UniProtKB/TrEMBL annotation:
InterPro entries: AAA+_ATPase, ABC_SmlMolc_Importer, ABC_transporter-like_ATP-bd, ABC_transporter-like_CS, Mo/tungstate-bd_C_term_dom, P-loop_NTPase, Transp-assoc_OB_typ2. Transmembrane segments: none annotated. Keywords: ATP-binding, Cell inner membrane, Cell membrane, Membrane, Nucleotide-binding, Translocase, Transport. Gene3D superfamilies: 2.40.50.100, P-loop containing nucleotide triphosphate hydrolases. This is ABC transporter domain-containing protein. It comes from Pseudaestuariivita atlantica. The lineage of its organism: Bacteria, Pseudomonadati, Pseudomonadota, Alphaproteobacteria, Rhodobacterales. One of its GO terms (cellular component) is ATP-binding cassette (ABC) transporter complex.
Length: 430
């Protein structure tokens, strides 16, 4: 079983990818479905291709399976060019949303089907089917037909059948789309457990952000045949590299504006205090690198270019920082974790609703704005407040429901303050 806490082959310059897409383009007539795409996927990864309908994620998977051929570029699997390997000769299995189980066969016979087609001996087939039934916790259902088991159990039968031939790679095309939300959430963790147990490389195609963020070791966010960003789920969420990724993944508040560098006030005599010159502190021009070296074990290294996707914004805390002018007459947004060289440039400040505090009084925070509650989305464990500012901007702020609903602090039309720290959001260039 892979230790998820230590499994980061994409950060190892000596690691060899299992799958390589190199400058792959796929056209259907005049339409370009995949546009000069390059990406590496490593052995034992649970890799998610995430994007809206029509972004090219299914086309990418079909080329990997051998159902489509690239117009240009190369796809290698285990170091071998797949151009001349037909679909039935590739060490790849595919699991569909519909499961495609044979209704006239029992669960056991469905799982054994591929092995029988290969001509494996009866003893091997029986042992392998028993192993798959145990892995997917279906031992009691081997004699039943598909219509005699639940949707979640049928999903596990399809998974067991896909894994029975021990493929190097398993492709999952919206595998949980037919399940209700509660069952889908439970099955996500079952998929993760099975993938870790078998060590098989999984590539899942989905438009469900929560599903991708839950199961995947890395997520590739796609848009119009290109990869916008590929990274771990936490970095995709916390450090999106564009407004598209920020807006596509979860809830977000976006403030387009202009960045303005702010310098700290100089000491009265124009010299730095003696304490600031202590050799125990890194020089000012090394502070960013020093912090990154300290935080990299927690946040991980930045993208190394292997993915073919742009890097996310680097965290470079500075004592001076930026102010973002985002609306006429409004206080600027104060930021201290922005990338360098943004002074005077057009930017977008992005902040998640859960990073924003809601209070009756002005908070003691670098960013504080007063507004009116115009809507409340009650989700049980959390409530999302839609707060309209005097500028007309509507900001979503999310709070945990630690009180019962009758004791909730705010309601419709209340005047409230919202606020956040100077490191709560990210500054995006595109």
């Amino acid at each position: 079983m892979v230790n998820a806490a230590e499994f980061e082959p994409w950060s190892d310059p000596d690691a060899v990818p299992l799958i390589r897409f190199q400058n792959v383009t796929k056209r259907f007539g005049e339409f370009t479905a995949i546009d000069d795409l390059t990406i590496d996927i490593y052995e034992q990864e649970f890799f998610a291709l995430l994007g809206p309908s029509g972004c090219g994620k299914t086309t990418l998977m079909r080329m990997l399976a051998g159902f489509e051929a690239p117009t240009s570029g190369t796809i290698t699997l285990g170091g071998e060019d797949m151009a001349n390997r037909p679909a039935n000769k590739r060490p790849v299995n595919m699991m569909f949303q519909s499961y495609a189980l044979f209704p006239h066969l029992t669960v056991r016979d469905n799982i054994a089907f591929g092995l029988k087609r290969e001509g494996r001996d009866a003893a091997f087939i029986a042992a392998r089917v028993d192993e798959m039934l145990k892995l997917t916790r279906l031992e009691r259902f081997g004699a039943r037909k598909p219509h005699q088991i639940s949707g979640g159990q049928r999903q596990r039968v399809a998974l067991a059948r896909s894994l029975a031939k021990a493929p190097k790679l398993l492709l999952l095309d919206e595998p949980l789309g037919a399940l209700d939300k509660k069952l889908r959430q439970d099955t996500q963790f079952e998929l993760m457990e099975i993938q870790e147990t078998t060590g098989t490389t999984f590539v899942i195609v989905t438009h469900d952000q929560e599903e991708a963020m839950t199961v995947a070791s890395r997520v590739a966010v796609m848009n119009e045949g290109r990869i916008e960003q590929v990274d771990t789920p936490d970095r995709i969420y916390e450090l999106p590299n564009s407004t598209y990724v920020a807006d596509f993944i979860g809830e977000i508040n976006l403030f387009p504006g202009t960045a303005r560098r702010t310098d700290p006030p100089a000491p009265p005599d124009g010299t730095a205090p003696a304490a600031a010159k202590s050799e125990s502190q890194p020089p000012a021009n090394e502070a960013a690198g020093w912090l990154v070296s300290r935080l990299s074990p927690i946040f991980g290294e930045g993208a190394d270019g292997k993915s073919g996707a742009p890097d996310g914004p680097a965290l470079l805390p500075r004592p001076d920082g930026l102010e973002i002018d985002w609306a006429e007459g409004a206080d600027p947004i104060v930021v201290s974790n922005a990338t360098e060289g943004l002074d005077g440039g057009a930017v977008t400040f992005a902040i998640r609703p859960e990073k924003i505090a809601v209070s009756a009084d002005r908070p003691d925070l670098p960013n504080a704005f007063q507004g009116k509650v115009i809507d409340i989305a009650y989700l049980g464990n959390v409530s999302t407040y839609h707060v309209e500012l005097p500028t007309g901007q509507i900001v979503k702020a999310q709070t945990a429901n630690t009180r019962r609903i009758s004791a909730r602090a705010f309601t419709w039309d209340d005047t409230v303050w919202i606020g956040w720290t100077d490191t709560a959001g990210v500054v995006l260039l595109r």
